[in-house]
């Protein structure tokens, strides 16, 4: 009886010891993994990203551009659309740009005065009527070129545009592609502004300073 009890007691003791050892080993493994994860997080938090490469530019250059802007507000394929107008505005108003009106434009730019001459780009953006006493447009437009040396590049125009003045100047405030960091001006001369047909033709002579 005693011998059997002794054997049984030793067996229980050995089994308990195994459980304890297994538990200690599992804890050790878990703690070790947790510590490694905390260490990895700490290392990641302390890593400093490499500095960005400095911006490099070539020499500043001056470019002169000449093209024609064509706009059509009537017909099957108008290049300018009214997207917002002030409350109470008369839809039959003969004014080309009633105060408070907002237009979206996608006007072709051509090499020559003839609208059928080669298209070199598009003027895309917004035209907002912002003059109460005198018609004046705020022009927010991207002049994007689609052929020639500056294919894929564009100029950004943000300027007042008194459309009923035959000659006027717009500000060029930026650009992309070959016109990166552009600044300059555009001298405009209106050849046609016909409220009946909705046709507008404007000559652009643009001077810009930029880096390629």
UniProtKB/TrEMBL annotation:
<dbReference type="Pfam" id="PF03018">
    <property type="entry name" value="Dirigent"/>
</dbReference>
<comment type="similarity">
    <text>Belongs to the plant dirigent protein family.</text>
</comment>
<protein>
    <recommendedName>
        <fullName>Dirigent protein</fullName>
    </recommendedName>
</protein>
<keyword id="KW-0964">Secreted</keyword>
<keyword id="KW-0052">Apoplast</keyword>
<comment type="subunit">
    <text>Homodimer.</text>
</comment>
<dbReference type="GO" id="GO:0009699">
    <property type="term" value="P:phenylpropanoid biosynthetic process"/>
</dbReference>
<dbReference type="GO" id="GO:0048046">
    <property type="term" value="C:apoplast"/>
</dbReference>
<dbReference type="InterPro" id="IPR004265">
    <property type="entry name" value="Dirigent"/>
</dbReference>
<comment type="function">
    <text>Dirigent proteins impart stereoselectivity on the phenoxy radical-coupling reaction, yielding optically active lignans from two molecules of coniferyl alcohol in the biosynthesis of lignans, flavonolignans, and alkaloids and thus plays a central role in plant secondary metabolism.</text>
</comment>
<dbReference type="InterPro" id="IPR044859">
    <property type="entry name" value="Allene_oxi_cyc_Dirigent"/>
</dbReference>
């Amino acid at each position: 009886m005693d011998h059997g009890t002794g054997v049984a007691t030793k067996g229980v003791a050995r089994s308990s010891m195994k459980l304890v050892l297994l538990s200690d080993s599992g804890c050790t493994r878990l703690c070790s993994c947790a510590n490694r994860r905390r260490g990895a997080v700490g290392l990641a938090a302390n890593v400093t990203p490499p500095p960005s490469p400095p911006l490099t530019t070539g020499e500043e250059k001056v470019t002169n551009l000449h093209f024609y802007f064509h706009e059509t507000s009537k017909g099957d394929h108008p290049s300018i659309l009214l997207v917002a107008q002030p409350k109470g505005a008369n839809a039959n108003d003969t004014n080309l740009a009633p105060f408070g009106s907002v237009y979206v434009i996608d006007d072709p730019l051509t090499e020559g005065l003839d609208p059928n001459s080669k298209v070199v780009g598009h003027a895309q953006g917004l035209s907002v009527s912002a003059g109460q006493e005198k018609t004046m447009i705020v022009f927010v437009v991207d002049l994007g070129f689609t052929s020639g040396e500056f294919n894929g590049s564009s100029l950004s125009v943000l300027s007042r545009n008194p459309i009923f003045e035959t000659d006027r100047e717009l500000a060029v405030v930026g650009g992309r592609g070959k016109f990166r960091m552009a600044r300059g001006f555009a001298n405009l001369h209106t050849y046609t502004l016909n409220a009946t047909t909705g046709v507008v033709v404007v000559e652009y002579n643009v001077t810009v300073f930029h880096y390629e």
